[in-house]
Specification:
Elements lengths: L18 H23 L5 H10 L7 H9 L5 H24 L8 H17 L2 H34 L2 E2 L1 H8 L5 H12 L1 H12 L1 H12 L3 H4 L1 E3 L3 H11 L12 H4 L27 E2 L12 H12 L11 H20 L5 H18 L8 H23 L1 H6 L1 H23 L15 E3 L11
Antiparallel strand pairs: 1-3, 2-4
Helix pairs in contact: 2-5, 2-6, 3-5, 3-6, 3-10, 4-5, 5-6, 8-15, 9-15, 10-14, 10-15, 12-14, 12-16, 14-15, 14-16, 16-17, 16-19, 17-19
Amino acid sequence: MLVEDPKTSSGRRGLFPSVRIVVALLAVLSLLIGLQLYAHQESTLGPLESLWRDYAGTPKSMTLPWAGLLLALVGVSWRRRLITLAAAVGIDILYLIPRLVNGEEFAVGNGPVIALTGLVLVAWLRWTGVERRSALHAAALGALLIVATKVGDIWLGVTIRTQDHVLDEYVMLVDHALAQPSWLVGRLLDDLGPHVTWVLHWVYIELPAVAAVVAVWQLRKVASSGRWPGHYLVRTFLVLGLVGPLFYVLFPVIGPMFVFGADGEGQQLGNFWPMVSPPLDLTPTSLPWEGGPPRNCMPSMHTAWATAVFLHSRRDIDGTKAPRWIRFVGAFWLICTLTATLGFGYHYGADLIAGAVLCLTIDSALRDPRRGWGWFRIRLVAGGAVLFAALLTSYRYLAPVYADHPIIGGMLLVGALVALAVTYKVTWFPRDNAATDAHGSADIDVADDTVSTTVTR
């Protein structure tokens, strides 16, 4: 492996970012401004206003800013991590004291956002070479994690305002082939009591935070080595967030707790969920629905993201098996997230299958870029995309067939997902104890443009 010393190239970069970075920043800024104008027109909270609250007001989330900062710190040394963390904690305390004195609600999150911004400014203005590039790269990931949630909030509002009908009747019929899992798990959680419900609710909400933990573990050697892996969790997480929500407006669904439960505010078809099995009407229609909730069920993005966390907690970036604790975290979050999505009435089983298929497809397109686009990748990505399209099409046009032939329909749905998962496993994880990938090379890229790497088998 031939690596140029970062110290010899540290002075080659000025303070001005490359054209590519400038274009990316302008694109993000334009998107945020456009969404803010839309939010102002709709009298709702916009992304720029929400970001301003993270700096000077009450943050919408207390954990997400900290998750973003922790992700940003993978690009700097331990000394700078401790300094930045201390600054973030101190700033949060300074914001918290007046809140508590004035009797306001407990809230933190200003400190990490301000500290992350300061880290970006210091790295850009004072550092050079690989040191600077690694810090800015990591900070960009942390900032994207925070900004993406702001954009997502606006998109959920768009689904409400543009989709005045929902397709829940169709998905409920499809779920008859899966034994109505939302009703089954909902009754189970009711029997288990409030403590289990509280744990599952916390797990469901903190999915971005655990994703940051897994990503930090994957990227823990970036600061010391100056090298970035070719693929890691954040890339899959962000691409899923860009692609998945587009289908909310193509297949609007809001969930059984609203259409078939007591939370429909008078628009529900009845108070069936979760204690009473829903009636099977083999002539489903799209239901008119005014106002919230967001049409964000199909596909289940919580399932997609939790599946991504699970997949990336299996192996280290060099192909070796991950430590037991990180594998436990990934499995625990996946199981609890699936249980919560069904048991809280947020999703149908069909949503979860679509979300898992979407995750396996997108991760296959991104994973191990050094291996290129051979048949092994094309069959997974193309097959997954076709399967995803076939699922949504069948949900819409074959829902009565699923309900009328539940055993065959259920076997087809579960079998298709299992077949894709097995193909994914065989392609990317052929040996549980493999130290490297199938081509004998670690999936690592070098952080700096001037660093060249030669990896031999």
